[in-house]
Amino acid sequence: MRILVMTNGEYGDPGWYGPQRESFDRVICVDGGTTWAMRLGMVPDRVVGDLDSISPEALDYAAGHGAEFTVVPREKDNTDTQLALELAERDGATGVVIWGGTGSRLDHSLSNLFSASSLVLKGIAVQFASPREDIYLIDRSLVLPARVGETVSLIALGDEALGVTLSGFKYPLFDARINGRWQHAVSNVVVAENPAVRVASGVLAVIHYRELPE
Q: CATH for 2-131, among 3.40.640.10, 3.40.50.720, 3.40.50.10240, 3.90.550.10?
């Protein structure tokens, strides 16, 4: 089951999302992410959060479409996005795509990335998708849908990632170790079609920029 999680981060060009709207089995909205669902014409199956950032119009929109609400206190240990990821796992997700999962709040962006890595270790594919870049969390292998000249960075999510091997990149790696406390695989460049990333142990965030931020 492929589940979309819509959070209240940055979305960029709204037109980018239209062609992908029909590719999900379920949609979970995180609080103010419901407002984005309404704007983009997505129908939420679930809404989770303390409801401190959802607009009244989006609340009515979700309720009118029969969404199931999981309302939690504002003062809690887990973030609303963490709760949404837990719900996606309970709903039987085999793949989770997150829209709006990164943005101006660095603390939320880091929390979302590291928290989502726990799903990867349970066999659930995770991708943060946006008009500018995709972030794939992997613990095995990935063939990137990237074009020659595009930029790709690798970040170890955890103490280390072992057995990292790259093909189709300007700076290749073979059976390398990436230290989570001293990253050294940032800003590589695609030089061949179907570039591949493999990791033997640990979780990597593979950040693929379709266009670099200015």
A: 3.40.50.10240
